[in-house]
Amino acid sequence: VQLQASGGGLVQAGGSLRLSCAASGRAFSNYVMGWFRQGPGKEREFVAAISRGGGGVRTYADSVQGRFTISRDSAKNTVYLQMNSLKPEDTAVYFCAANQYSFTRLPAEYDYWGQGTLVTVSS
Q1: Is 3 helix (H, G, I), strand (E, B) or coil?
Q2: Which of 25, 86, 52 is nearest to 94 (CA)?
């Protein structure tokens, strides 16, 4: 599967953005989808993940819980990350990723990665 992330940009603290990740190929619903981010000088970290199929199970990093929402639309082969109440520390390149086997927060368990989209939050 190939992934294409979009929707990043510059936003003021307290603002919102919605990231999209379009997947090509078949069987999108068979993949666990995740969002990760990598800030300046930092390692890549988990943000959110959503289960296969209808996406009934979701998990979030503590740092974004209550502010970010992950969702998926199987008809459009797309996963979204709605980001509200953004903070300067949310500034990072955001990546979407997919794997068929594990509902996990571990980047190493994801087999497919998008190219990343930059989110910059100004104070």
Answers
A1: strand
A2: 86
